[in-house]
């Protein structure tokens, strides 16, 4: 749902008054975006930059119109803040409604250490210097949310890879399906589900967030970015009644089982341990083994570490295991487990550590993550900020920065900036004048209202590969 439909109104109210607050003779304003710090509690080398391209494409496709200006004038007049109608009409007549700014950004999917500029914005028309900071609201929303979700998802993949290296003989590509997006219903909006779900797909290929698939196709050229399987919910199981629990399970196998097929069945509606040991492990054991596919048992309540450990032990008893070359047990391929309740990066590590201690490989389990993936993040998770760092007045550039004595962590960078990288020094933000254009990783992606560079999800995934 796009309420504003114009960048003039996709803004914090106070921005409308800022045109009159700059020094006399202001011509150009240069600002940057960065993730200042890691406040997530996760072990991370930086953030996965992602999510700018959808916004820039929307801006390119919807130039400002006379009706936008007329509506904005009316809204701000009633709202009680000034509106620079003359300036926006200048943009309409002189630039055909296209924003006269240059936006540079690091390539999406790049993992950039904290406290480095990942986006640089500067106006290109000295008579329209206010749009640089005016765009902060919409730019920050595009960058902080998608990048934060992509980073949390990426952090989980690092955890999974650690236990894969320790316990598994499976191909590393199996990790692509170890974390499934369960977050659509817990997201704050359809747009959040699409953007956040798409950010998760930077790292994984399992999702139940259909809007993310549509967005990945539309904005990143990936015809089908993720996959899912038939799965039960409690209503479809409990509708059979407690006495019909085993019949409900048998129906799932009958409807969706078969050679090479996977079917997930929530099994904790009454007693998950009884369900695994007696119903799946005895009454339906032959059907599970004979169908030629894989039953994925889903516990959905209780302490995830203890419940998963016990469910796996019962499944191993019922269906048997093989020991891989690293000395860890892998269930009969007819059975696997997925945990989707209480899942976050910390519980995933705890579950995998317990399973490894019990002698089980990571092969046996996948995870579904909902609110902790798409909703339990905010701008402060990585202290995202957009700040002005340089201003040109009367033809001369000068530094702009803040340095509050009450919080040194909120100090900002100064000057026109570049993002450099080399193998010896790594990533670092440097003065623009000290960096050759070819070495600046902040490349133009949007100039004067037009996209000048695009990327695909396949390219983003390659850059973000753990």
TrEMBL record:
Residues holding beta-nicotinamide D-ribonucleotide: 208, 298-300, 340-341, 371, 379
InterPro entries with a match to the protein in the record: Aldolase_TIM, DUF5598, N/Namide_PRibTrfase, Nicotinamide_PRibTrfase, Nicotinate_pribotase-like_C
Domain of life: Bacteria
BP GO annotations: NAD+ biosynthetic process
UniProt binding sites for diphosphate: 185, 234, 298
Keywords: Glycosyltransferase, Pyridine nucleotide biosynthesis, Transferase
Domain annotation Nicotinate/nicotinamide phosphoribosyltransferase: ranges: 177-446
CDD domains: PBEF_like
The enzyme's E.C. designation: 2.4.2.12
Family named by the database record: Belongs to the NAPRTase family.
Pathway annotation: Cofactor biosynthesis; NAD(+) biosynthesis; nicotinamide D-ribonucleotide from 5-phospho-alpha-D-ribose 1-diphosphate and nicotinamide: step 1/1
Reaction(s) this enzyme catalyzes, per UniProt: beta-nicotinamide D-ribonucleotide + diphosphate = 5-phospho-alpha-D-ribose 1-diphosphate + nicotinamide + H(+)
GO MF entry, a single one: nicotinamide phosphoribosyltransferase activity
One Pfam match: NAMPT_N
Name of this chain's protein: Nicotinamide phosphoribosyltransferase
Residue ranges of every copy of the Nicotinamide phosphoribosyltransferase N-terminal domain listed in the record: 8-103
PANTHER family on file: NICOTINAMIDE PHOSPHORIBOSYLTRANSFERASE
Native source species: Paramagnetospirillum kuznetsovii
Phylogenetic classification of the source organism: Bacteria, Pseudomonadati, Pseudomonadota, Alphaproteobacteria, Rhodospirillales
């Amino acid at each position: 749902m796009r309420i504003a439909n114009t960048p003039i109104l996709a803004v914090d109210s106070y921005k409308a008054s800022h045109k009159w607050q700059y020094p006399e003779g202001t011509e150009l304003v240069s600002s940057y975006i960065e993730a200042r710090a890691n406040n997530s509690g996760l072990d991370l080398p930086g953030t996965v930059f992602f999510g700018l391209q959808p916004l820039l494409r929307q801006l390119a496709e919807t130039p400002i119109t006379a009706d936008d200006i007329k509506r904005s004038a009316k809204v701000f007049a009633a709202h009680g803040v000034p509106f620079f109608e003359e300036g926006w009409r200048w943009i309409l007549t002189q630039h055909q409604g296209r924003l006269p700014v240059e936006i540079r950004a690091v390539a999406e999917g790049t993992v950039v250490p904290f406290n480095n500029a990942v986006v640089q914005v500067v106006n290109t028309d000295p008579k329209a210097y206010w749009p640089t900071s005016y765009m902060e609201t919409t730019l920050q929303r595009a960058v902080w949310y998608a990048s934060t979700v992509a980073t949390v998802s990426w952090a989980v993949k690092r955890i999974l890879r650690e236990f894969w290296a320790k316990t598994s003989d499976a191909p590393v590509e199996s990790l692509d399906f170890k974390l499934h997006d369960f977050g659509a219903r817990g997201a704050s909006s359809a747009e959040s589900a699409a953007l956040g779900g798409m950010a998760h797909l930077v790292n994984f290929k399992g999702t139940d967030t259909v809007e993310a698939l549509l967005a990945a196709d539309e904005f990143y050229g990936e015809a089908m970015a993720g996959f899912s399987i038939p799965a039960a919910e409690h209503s479809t199981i409990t509708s059979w009644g407690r006495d019909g629990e085993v019949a409900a399970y048998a129906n799932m196998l009958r409807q969706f089982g078969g050679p090479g097929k996977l079917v997930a069945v929530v099994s904790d509606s009454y007693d998950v341990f009884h369900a695994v040991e007696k119903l799946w492990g005895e009454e339906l054991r032959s059907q599970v083994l004979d169908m030629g596919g894989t039953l994925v048992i889903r516990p959905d309540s209780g302490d995830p570490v203890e419940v998963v450990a016990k469910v796996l032990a019962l499944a191993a008893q019922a269906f048997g295991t093989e020991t891989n070359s690293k000395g860890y047990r892998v269930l009969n391929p007819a059975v696997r487990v997925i945990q989707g309740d209480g899942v976050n990066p910390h519980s995933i590590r705890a579950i995998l550590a317990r399973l490894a201690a019990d002698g089980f490989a990571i092969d046996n389990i996948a995870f579904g993550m909902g609110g902790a993936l798409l909703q339990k993040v905010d701008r402060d998770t990585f202290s995202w900020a957009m700040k002005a760092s340089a201003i040109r007045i009367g033809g001369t550039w000068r530094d702009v920065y803040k340095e509050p004595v009450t919080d040194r962590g909120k100090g900002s960078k100064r000057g026109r900036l570049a993002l450099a990288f080399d193998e010896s020094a790594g990533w670092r933000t440097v003065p623009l004048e000290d960096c050759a254009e070819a070495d600046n990783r902040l490349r133009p992606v949007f100039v004067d209202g037009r996209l000048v560079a695009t990327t695909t999800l396949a390219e983003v995934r390659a850059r973000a590969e753990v």
